Amino acid sequence: MEAQQFQALVARVERLAEADPKGYVLRVFAIAALGFVILGLVIAMAMLNVALIGGVVLLVVFTGGKALLFFAKLGKLVIVLAIPVWLMLRTTWTLVFARFPRPEGRAIRRDEAAALFARLDAMRERTGGPRVHRVLLTDELNAAIVQRPRLGLLGWQENTLILGLRLLQALSEDEAMAVVAHEYGHLAGHHGRFAAFIYRLRNAWGRLQAMSQQWNDWGSRLIARLFRWYAPRFNAYTFALARQHEYLADRTSVELVGAGAAADALMRTGIAARYESEGFWPAIQRRIAAEAEPPAGRGLMWRQSQREALDADARQRYLDAARREATDPFDTHPALVDRLAAIGAAADGQAAERLAPPAVSAAESWFGTQLPALSAEFDRRWRDEVADQWKERHEHLRRQAARVADLATRTELSDDERWDYLCAVEETDPDRDLMPLLEGLLAAAPAHLPALFRRGRLRLDRGDEAGIGDLERVIAADPSATLPGCDIAWQFYRRRGTDGDAAQAEAWQKRWMERSTYENTVNAELSQLPADATLAPHDLPEDRLDIVRHIVAGNATHIRRAYLLRRILTSNPACHDYVICIETARFTLGNKGPAVVKRLAALEWPMHVFIVQLGGEPFKRFRKTIDKQKIAPIYAL
């Protein structure tokens, strides 16, 4: 299902949910039941196959082997019938007993965080929810509870609480507990058992759909296609209920820690997330140019930087940005202002002052003396993971710095050199204002598309709506810039949040989806070559044609002739796609065509191309096209 179709279905279902809540719940119940019917049919087919095999075995036993002689006489027919039975049985076994991967992280024992486990025990007792079997600590600014069936579709759930260390370092204990209670509320169903059940079912179908992408045999592909049809529709129909369940999970937070702590947790998490992406990580990245190795003590840097860099003005700026964001139609999580309003809270004028980094973080409260060792453990792992990339980036920036120094000494630069200089400056000196360089380049080359695009983005980052005009010019000249351009414009209007911006953001999002649907259609057509493809003489420029001829001639073993044709796409006739048709030598031992096609397909070509053998199915009719259009070979013995 395409994104545009999904959004249209979600919008239609949301209108139904608002107009007829009871009717909506009945439809959700019906589509959930359909999912169980699908799973039941798959399992029933497997059981039927098992019964068939068992019946054959019993028949052989009770007839004294006469049935075995009968099956032996049938010969290959038995094998032909047995293959699909075996494939379906194996596929169903894989489905029913699929081992979903366990979440990864550093397991926390009860003796390492007694205070945390005491809060979890109290939460479970108060809500009557399920047990948390494992607690994992990760190197993230996030928290989640993952329910993993130990026996695949047969159940026996294992509940894992995942806590990001950076999140715990940013929140107070009560605020962190509010986040945990929200995640736990999805499982406990404290304020809606049916909604909690649907929430878990959405996660289960998501995992099944993702897992089905890896199935390759005949029987598995049939089931995978069924899953890919059902799962998006189930998600669309349950979308409104899933969003409602986010509000219900917030109510669990309010009951456990109070509305004040729950509201502060929502606001502080939004502030911390923006600071991490806009302040903390850029500061780490800026160290690459001067330092050949990743810094030690990154966890301590995170905690200290919040106290030093995240002052009241910065907190207010990040909070204002979070307040301006509207609810994303593709995200079940409501926007911050909607979640605050639902629990009777708001980001008042004193919120930024009140949300100063806590004197004692949740990480310090829960892990105590274990915290330095845990932080150091994640730091070592991070340094090991990024060491090679860090070193490569460090060397690259050194080369770019030398490039900047070289170009800066020249009195005159070409347009391309001006662009190279600008890009190198942006990498080596990210705090420098690029606007004068962009204006200078565009004064000399007004149609320089990369510079126009970069200026448009920079203008929008600064709140200047004139950047939209730059993006529009680039998109008009180069449609491939549509997706990134639409994304930047959508973020600008969504972030600014003034009158009319919601409609503008929606218009850019719609434009993005239309282009995405179009590109997906073209890419789907480009991914395969049908036997009835429309072919025409190629229009490849002579320089690239020489490259193609050279490649074919250099790999001409067993090739008698090679023809180059252009394929006309139904979705985009202007798109350039090509087909190389080969004829193999007549007097060879065996059919060399498949090996030649495989060899040529593995090479790098200067265009998108399919390699086919003219003598083999299903491309025999291509010979008629070549003869009818009198296309000359690009290679011949």
TrEMBL record:
<feature type="transmembrane region" description="Helical">
    <location>
        <begin position="50"/>
        <end position="71"/>
    </location>
</feature>
<keyword id="KW-1133">Transmembrane helix</keyword>
<feature type="domain" description="Peptidase M48">
    <location>
        <begin position="162"/>
        <end position="344"/>
    </location>
</feature>
<feature type="transmembrane region" description="Helical">
    <location>
        <begin position="24"/>
        <end position="43"/>
    </location>
</feature>
<keyword id="KW-0482">Metalloprotease</keyword>
<keyword id="KW-0479">Metal-binding</keyword>
<dbReference type="GO" id="GO:0004222">
    <property type="term" value="F:metalloendopeptidase activity"/>
</dbReference>
<dbReference type="GO" id="GO:0006508">
    <property type="term" value="P:proteolysis"/>
</dbReference>
<keyword id="KW-0378">Hydrolase</keyword>
<protein>
    <submittedName>
        <fullName>Peptidase M48 Ste24p</fullName>
    </submittedName>
</protein>
<keyword id="KW-1003">Cell membrane</keyword>
<keyword id="KW-0645">Protease</keyword>
<keyword id="KW-0862">Zinc</keyword>
<dbReference type="Pfam" id="PF01435">
    <property type="entry name" value="Peptidase_M48"/>
</dbReference>
<keyword id="KW-0472">Membrane</keyword>
<dbReference type="InterPro" id="IPR001915">
    <property type="entry name" value="Peptidase_M48"/>
</dbReference>
<dbReference type="GO" id="GO:0046872">
    <property type="term" value="F:metal ion binding"/>
</dbReference>
<dbReference type="GO" id="GO:0005886">
    <property type="term" value="C:plasma membrane"/>
</dbReference>
<feature type="transmembrane region" description="Helical">
    <location>
        <begin position="77"/>
        <end position="100"/>
    </location>
</feature>
<dbReference type="InterPro" id="IPR050083">
    <property type="entry name" value="HtpX_protease"/>
</dbReference>
<keyword id="KW-0812">Transmembrane</keyword>
